[in-house]
Design goal:
The protein is mainly alpha-helical. Belongs to the PrpD family.
């Protein structure tokens, strides 16, 4: 057997995860992080930068669509919905932080929600699977930053 690369090993671990791996504490913290991120994101939908990216993104269309938070009548392809909603979260800069320096929920939650909305009604994702995807996204982001020499020194540089 050839040795696995770090990426192969990481992918294997992620692929093997399921909702049973979520502890009660992780579920409760995840719900709190999601609620906080949604609140900050909804507030951020009123910012000028969010309006600009939303207007720009209107040129894209797709058979699949996801909601722009705070605008029930405005939908975009999942990629652009995640982008606009992520900008809304980050535009207020009150979203959660983590070390090494990152805002994990603002990057992960909009993508997870946009993708989950794009699934057909018959194949909707159960809530625990959505929480699992959220946690895997945050874990991947944190580990990638942890492996980065650049990210390791961010607090000292600022």
């Amino acid at each position: 057997f050839p040795l696995q690369t770090v990426t192969e090993n990481f992918a294997k671990v992620i692929h093997g995860l399921n909702a049973n791996h979520l502890t009660d504490q992780v579920i409760q913290r995840s719900k709190r992080m999601i609620l906080d991120t949604l609140g900050v994101g909804l507030l951020g939908t009123s910012t000028e930068v969010c309006h600009k990216v939303a207007q720009y993104s209107k040129i894209y269309s797709s058979d699949l669509s996801s909601t722009i938070w705070g605008h029930l009548d405005f939908r975009l392809p999942p990629l652009y919905a995640a982008f606009v909603n992520g900008v809304a979260v980050h535009s207020m800069d009150f979203d959660d932080t983590w070390h090494p320096a990152t805002h994990p929920s603002g990057a992960v939650l909009p993508a997870v929600i946009a993708l989950s909305e794009a699934f057909p009604q018959k194949k909707k994702i159960p809530g625990l699977d959505l929480l699992l995807a959220f946690n895997v996204g945050i874990e991947v982001q944190g580990r990638l930053l942890h492996f980065s020499r650049e990210a390791r020194n961010i607090p000292k540089r600022y």
